[in-house]
Design brief:
Elements: H1 34-44, H2 54-65, H3 70-80, H4 84-91, E1 105-110, H5 113-131, E2 137-138, E3 148-153, E4 165-167, E5 170-172, H6 177-189, H7 204-211, H8 231-238, H9 246-286
Parallel strand pairs: 1-3
Antiparallel strand pairs: 1-4, 2-3, 4-5
Helix pairs in contact: 1-2, 1-3, 2-3, 2-7, 3-4, 5-6
Length: 304
Amino acid sequence: MSTDPNAGRIPGMDDGTNASGISTTQVRQEPLDPTTYAELQEIAARYPQARSGLLPMLHLVQSVEGQVTARGIEACAEILGISAADVSGVATFYTMYKRRQVGDYHVGVCTNTLCAIMGGDLIFERLKDHLDIGNDETTDDANDQRSVTLEHIECNAACDYAPVMTVNWEFMDNMTPETATALVDDLRSGVEVHSTRGPRVVTWREAERVIAGFPDGLADEGPSAGPASLVGLNIARERGWVAPTVQEAAEAYQGADKAEGETASDKAEGSHEAEEVESDAKVEESGAEAKHEDNPANPGGDDK
């Protein structure tokens, strides 16, 4: 019997190291519980091709395990009839799949170009100092505080609210270093937090279960859009602009298609004419139409 204290632990997953891969060749863990396995099967059954369910299946694994684990990979592979390497390839490609334990809340700070210059970089640095952790690290849960995982993230398609943060993928808009530190303090102390454009914030594992396709009933809670996103709509209403009907759109499309066809035809016709002119010019340059030097009455190229 092995006396190695790390036996059965997966580098980069169970030990908190920065190992880059998810190993499925180490000592196997106990299989997933029957309820989770049945829900993974339920997800796979939603799709005409079961393999299409792999992404939500991995989110379900995270909702139970707190990360993508070796036994979660094995379960997905077994249900889908693919190799563990195939599943691991997907799990290590997308950044929303985590190889280390995530805290009670995943806090993301957008540091892409616009958010960065609007204050995202400063917010991220302030939070690292405030929480005393680095990127992709998690606070401890001492003193009955909730744990927070901090990560700088790429564009969240919310540039109109820059700088933007997320908590378990829910938007927190127009943030500042001060509001950011207050936010993580509230999360850690258990104060109920609401997204700027969405519902109240649940734990990361609960959010992962929703992403896997198991609704929590909060989808319609809170606003779904803010003023900056609705500027164009409001202008259209003020000016009486309306979207075309399906029939009008179809007619416009057909008209544009016909016009494009005529234009293409004109271009083709013009192209043929241009080719003829160019061909004549080349013949003239070659002297093929010139008279034979010894017999001016005989066209060039005639052997007679």
